[in-house]
Design a protein that fits this description.
Largest sheet: 8 strands, mixed
Number of strands: 15
Structural class: alpha/beta
Strand content: 5-15%
Order of helices and strands: HEHHEHEHEEHEHEEEHHHHHEEEHEEEH
Strand order of the largest sheet: 2-9-8-7-6-3-4-5
Length: about 400
């Protein structure tokens, strides 16, 4: 029989967070090995669970969740999202501007499918959350990566953004707080990005899924709040702030100037209707989550579990010779750098595979986040302190062996 090939549309699509190294880890687990997984920001396996009041609301409303909802979502959930948008000072938001999806991930794919034709370009940060690059490619567009500067706290390089805008550029993606670096962007920097979008009539896509996961009393500013005259699409959800990844409850909010975008919005409405609706049971969690007690604040406060684990992981990693790391101000990750003079790496995926094989620790290499050099990897600091100490100790042991093998110790 003739082989069945995957679509050519997938030729440039990559998602290494769940990629080939993970497949190797699964085989090792089948053979009886215990793998410490620091590859994915999934809070539940590490003892971070959705608040009880959210769970209770979903359970109590299950009898009313058997049918489809409106294609954009339940009224009460969308009303709560609208109030949250008002708190974040997003301008010109009405109920019709709010769409609920099966996680923000579904909506990321949707907004790109509705926008892009072959040859269109979207500015995406490097490093990025790789679904953005994949969604652009899947929609027939080209992701053009602008550099975030590690020496400047991983803030976007405005001049690099400016230099990469051309006649084919349709939009810019801003991930704030950033995954994988943990950078949180100040209002002054966001205003510069808004000005570029204004000058070149770009749509701003704001991925703000970690907007409550903030440390050291850092404040988050929604870029849309600075752009009343620019079309902005802000994405958020329950996965991280409320530790409810499996619920798949996300949303997007259209704000700013929309008069010129009627045709695009019609496309979004078509795609929202084609999938009928987002899963209904999880929508009943949204109003309670946004309006209830914000337990995330306890976790990220000084002495809170997430803050403690961030500090511990940062301390342990930067104590390893040749490893440096900008301390994250938000999100759940560190993105350490390996000094190329000490760690001469040509293939960072192979490097991560060797770490897995030798030390049973699973990470994601920097190139999996579209970083430009094979000198970074991402560490999830969700495991408890004992497991973090064990995992980073194994990483340190592997790196010591690597230095000895390459004569750089």
């Amino acid at each position: 029989m003739q082989p069945v090939h995957k679509s050519q549309k997938l030729a440039n699509v990559c998602y290494d967070i769940r990629g080939p190294v993970l497949e190797h880890a699964k085989k090792m687990e089948d053979e009886g090995h215990r793998i410490i997984k620091l590859n994915i920001g999934n809070p539940a396996p590490f003892g971070f669970f959705a608040p009880d009041e959210i769970i209770e609301d979903v359970i109590s409303n299950l009898p009313d969740a058997s049918g489809y909802s409106d294609s954009k979502g339940l009224f009460a959930a969308r009303k709560a999202i609208m109030h949250y948008a008002q708190q974040k000072q997003l301008p010109n938001v009405a109920m019709e501007d709010i769409y609920i999806g099966n996680g923000a991930s579904e909506l990321i794919v949707m907004v790109m499918q509705a926008l892009l034709d072959t040859g269109d370009e979207v500015l995406v940060p490097a490093p990025d959350y790789p679904l953005w690059t994949a969604a652009v490619s899947l929609a027939g567009g080209k992701a053009v990566h602008y550099v975030c500067d590690e020496d400047a706290g991983w803030f976007p390089d405005i001049e690099d953004i400016r230099a990469k805008i051309n006649a084919n550029t349709r939009a810019i993606v801003v991930i704030n707080p950033n995954n994988p670096t943990g950078a949180v962007y100040p209002p002054e920097l966001l205003a510069q990005i808004v000005e570029l979008a204004r000058q070149h009539q770009l749509i701003i896509y704001a991925d703000e899924i970690y907007d409550k996961v903030l440390y050291d009393e850092v404040r988050h500013t929604s870029i849309a709040s600075l752009a009343p005259d620019v079309l902005c699409v802000t994405l958020n959800g329950l996965s991280k702030n409320y530790r409810a990844c499996g619920y798949r409850a996300g949303w997007m909010v259209l704000s700013g100037e929309k008069k010129h975008a009627h045709d695009y919005i019609e496309g979004l409405n078509m795609l929202a209707s084609m999938r009928l609706c987002a899963n209904v049971p999880a929508q009943f969690a949204i109003q309670t989550a946004l309006g209830g007690y914000q337990s995330i604040n306890d976790l990220v406060a000084p002495g809170g579990r997430l803050a403690r684990q961030r500090d511990l992981a940062h301390e342990l990693l930067t104590a390893i010779p040749g490893v440096s790391c900008v301390k994250p101000q938000g999100a759940l990750y560190l993105f350490p750098r390996l000094d190329p003079k000490i760690y001469p790496i040509s293939d960072d995926q192979q490097f991560i595979l060797e770490l897995l094989q030798e030390e049973k620790v699973l990470l994601v290499q920097g190139s999996g986040f579209n970083w430009i050099a094979p000198d970074h990897f991402r560490v999830v600091f969700l495991p408890n302190s004992d497991d973090l100490i064990e995992a980073i100790g194994r990483i340190a042991r592997f790196l010591e062996s690597y230095r000895k093998r390459h004569g750089t110790d």
